[in-house]
Design a protein that fits this description.
single chain, 168 residues, alpha+beta, 4 helices, 38% strand
Amino acid sequence: MKTISKTFFVIALIVIGSAAVAQKQPNITVTKKIDLSADEVWEQIRILDNVDKISSFVSKVEFSGPLAAAGGTRVCTNAEGNGYFKESIKEFSDAERSYTYHVVEGVPAKNMVNNFKIVDLGYNKSMIIWTTSFEFVENPNMNKDQFVGFLTTAVNEMIDNSVKNAKS
């Protein structure tokens, strides 16, 4: 009986440990409380082909596929016009006010998954939550701290500009 209990305990630890590893924690989380309803904020965040309008880091966006559903692809050209990154929209939900996109090329990271989510706080207040998970790829142009700094700055700018658009 004791061996069965110990075996069960060990198996349970392995299963729980595996589940914890499978749920990768985000590398970066940006949250902002907004004095607008979740619907007003979502109407701006859900626009998938306007990154060049809300980010000074992007000069052009080429979008293909559905604009309000999973399956779309966007290629964003950097501000200098000599580089790009390609993203694939993996999940999109108006009901949950959320979308998830993978960056598939053009950044010093692999397995990069980003998510925007708008949370209704009631009383015409909401919160934007952006998360990213990635594995940094060592390179001569940028270290991991610089990459994290760039992403944080870029996302904050896009959120701020989306909120300005929602207020106007």
